[in-house]
Amino acid sequence: MTGGIVALILLFGFVLFAVPIGFALSGATLAGLLAFGDVGSLSALANISWGATAEFVLTAVPLFILMSEIISFTGIGRDLFLAIERWLSRLPGGLAMTAVFACAAFGAVSGTGVGVAAVIGGVAIPEMVRRGYTREMSTGTVAASSALGMIIPPSLPLILYGVVTETPIADLFLAGLVPGLLIIALFCLYIGVAVGLGHGIEPGATRPSFTWGERLASVTLAGPTLLLIVAVIGSIYAGIATPTEAAAVGVIGALLLALLSGKLTWPSFRTALVNATRTSCMVMFVLIGAMLFGYLLGLLRVPQSVSEWVLHMGLSRWAVFALLMLAYFVLGMFLEVTSIILITMPIVYPTIIQLGFDPIWFAMVLIVNMSFAVITPPVGLCLYVAKSCLPGTSIGQVVRGTVPFMALLVLVIVILCIAPELVTDFIR
Fold this sequence. Notes:
This protein is an all-alpha fold. It has helices at about 1-15, 20-35, 40, 45-55, 60-70, 75-90, 95-105, 115-130, 135-145, 150, 155-165, 170-175, 175-195, 210-215, 220-235, 245-260, 265-300, 300-310, 315-330, 335-355, 360-370, 380-390, 395-420, 420-425. InterPro entries: DctM, TRAP_DctM.
């Protein structure tokens, strides 16, 4: 166990000195093996590195990333926002609700929170401020709602969780629907009540009205995005395609949308390829490093020791769960979501199973908790993306705007703990 503690200290030392997380994991593994292992164990590193990236299901990761990059230059984010607005504009807080729904829908073809914040925020935040919403409400709504990109499938964090824990990814995707819909409902309920009471919006702000003809015409704006969502997610739920095959369908669909919109040019496509390659390589390096570090921890019997220590503490399993949630919240303030999942799962997952928690249910609660990671300083990337969408906005204003939504995310975790069947029964 001493060797494991030293390895963890070394890892966080690398992170504090801004060493890229993939190299920090690999470096800590190498140092740990040299210090506490034997030379023969080094020969396993190549096989582990190959095995970590040779999983067929991991092909979905670069494909979904490429789909997101292609979608980002098609302009469908703006079309989607305008289409939803025509249906919700007359409700109190209708424009803010539109931002929530647009983030959820775009998240279903993006898989990442930051991408959702950039695309939807660039359209929604300036428009909300122009219509009389406060900067806090405008930026906070988009920043918090962008986390739906990690919860509503296809979700890259869920794919990586499935790979590391050997949990069926199709089941994880299916289970993500209920938490996602619950968050959307609570966010919209809060917005409607707050704006109805005059909070988050300037007095006298007007609400635009649209005719039924204009609302029906909006279907042509949102139609391409909805078709892409149905093609990708529907093919998985119907059992027609695996997540990897659905990701390939998504890339083809995104290319067709870009072609039909007239935005498919060689410079834009080349940029999408370069960005997708860069992001995919980063994710794969982190995955390799996490697998190597997990091998070191297994060699030093850290997961087994942690499980035995937790079980002998005499705490109830819910007390252990609460401590884990608090630890994940703190980690989310300093590390990126993908890194957190890949680093912690080799240690935490055996304990979760020993305590009798359902692994798919735990994945959903974990991902909701990880929503805080993108909206809590100092590393909450969606905060800075939302801030950049509205010049002159301070990071403090964005944080204040997200606080009510953070409280609602805590409520979602509590609801899932009280009624785990919302997740477990849904996949059976």
